[in-house]
Amino acid sequence: MNCGALGWIRRVVVCAIPVMGVSLPIGAAPPGLDPCTLVTTAEVEAVLSKLKGAPRGETLADAKSCTYKFTNGQDEFEIWIGTGEVFARMRKDAKNPVTVSGFGEEAYMDRGRLGLGSLELTMRKGAVLAQLSIREGVDDEAKLKALAQKAAGRM
Question: Among the four 36, 55, 97, 150, which has the fewest Cβ within 10 Å?
Fold first, then answer.
């Protein structure tokens, strides 16, 4: 697999997993739920930056993702969805989880997972798990929370 051709978040998920011996952090994606409908392109642009084209949805193993790429060619915003059954394992495996409220039954943020400069917000609402990821940066927590609030309202 050519990991260089993939976006930085996808490299973490797809390329690091076989090496580290862990599985995707998401169970089977809920049927009918599309991660690309959890936030709009206008909302992403208002919070983060100008997008380069439409978001790209993908199904990988038993999870669904939506990737938003930006005109700077470096940054990405990504949403993964699956079933909430693996939430406890994910939290246990988190590097430095910080509980946050207002995003469903359970939610936490984790910074720098796998040491690759990302900020993730993982939330469970009913049987659905969603994980939103951005690159670390200025006001990254507030930006990620703003997008997660939109997504939680549509889950």
Answer: 150
